[in-house]
Amino acid sequence: MKRECHVRFCEGLGVKLPGATRRNIYVGSRVAGERVMSGVRVFLEEVLKLRINAQKSAVARPWERKFLGFSVTQHRESRLRIAPASVQRLMQKVRDLMRTGRGRSLAHTIEDLNPLLRGWITYFRLTEAKGVLEELDSWMRRRLRCLLWRQWKRPATRARKLRTLGLSAERARLSAGNGHGPWWNAGALHMNLMLPAKSFTAKGLISLLETHQRLQSLR
What is the pTM of this model? Predict the structure, then answer.
């Protein structure tokens, strides 16, 4: 089973390296990984006089580590995937962007969101695990529904907006006054029915999954 020996090089005496250089070394077992790690450490520190970042150096299973934002799946035939930490960073950036955009229109928020999403998926276009992209698309739409629910503020406004979107008057009244928070309502049936995925596509929101598929077709 493959292991990873992840060593971070730093620029040392007379050796010109581009800032911090990262390398992965794959071997057949943990014992081999420990042996290679020890040899690499001796060579770098004693021969090249370089410093090693101990926090980012380890012997571990490939799917437990990341490299340039990527990782691999835990399968016999491993596939390239986006590392969980990279997914979490994107989600935090989206949260920050939407937090600053609570007073802006949905169209304006989507306009600000699209460059972030487009740049992110372009970088990770080589990923072979696509399930996370579908989950992120769904999560993004729920964040936008949550943003709208917050903007509508009062139950009367929420009921009126839901009626405008096509919900019956009685259902709109009950949904608007259900007492649950914005995130719960953003995932509830009344918001999903009235603001389905195609409604956000019509407003210009790009899909990570569809953009990835389009980039793959260009290869």
Answer: 0.75
